[in-house]
Amino acid sequence: MSIIGMHALIYSTKADETRRFFSDVLGFRSVDAGRGWLIFAAPPSELAVHPADDGEYHELYLMCDNIEGTIAELRAKGVETGAIHDQPWGRVTQVRLPSGQELGMYEPRHPTAIGWPK
Questions:
Q1: What's this model's pTM, rounded to 2 decimal places?
Q2: Do 92 and 110 contact (CB within 8 A), yes or no?
Q3: Torsion of CA 107, 25, 40, 28, to 10 degrees
């Protein structure tokens, strides 16, 4: 197969501001696909499939290796974040996007597939 990556989409009522958030606040590099449509290079990713009893849905989380430090940096840049909650699989919070929607962020406690294949 020739699958080369994964392309995730965020639909936003404040697309320009959210693009600036990913560029200026998170520091993600991007290319312009035309007419200002930025496509961001994302950190390495992994995909998990969980069972669902009441219909399918999808979630997007940013992963970090030091959630307190990451949240402190984001707050210093004026980003609103939620409280950190301990879960069996990791420490999780939410980051508020310019539209007011939240994006999950967590520090995993489980083994990750980041860096695969080696």
A1: 0.86
A2: no
A3: -70
> Rounded to whole angstroms, how far apart are CA atoms 81 and 74?
8
Could you give the CA distance from residue 65 to residue 55 in angstroms, rounded to a whole number?
Answer: 31
Q: Could you tell me which residues come within 8 angstroms of residue 41 by beta carbon, excluding any fewer than 6 positions away?
A: 28, 29, 30, 31
Q: Is the pLDDT of residue 117 over 70?
A: no
pLDDT recorded at residue 36: 84
Q: What is the CATH number of domain 15-108?
A: 3.10.180.10
Q: What is the pLDDT of residues 49-100, one digit of tens each?
A: 999 999 998 899 999 999 999 999 999 999 999 999 999 999 999 999 999 9
The ranges assigned to domains in the chain are: 15-108
Q: What does the alpha-carbon distance between residue 110 and residue 10 come to, in Å, rounded to a whole number?
A: 26
Residues 6+ apart with CB under 8 A from 98: 12, 14, 17, 18, 20, 21
Residue 62 tokens, joined = 């940013």
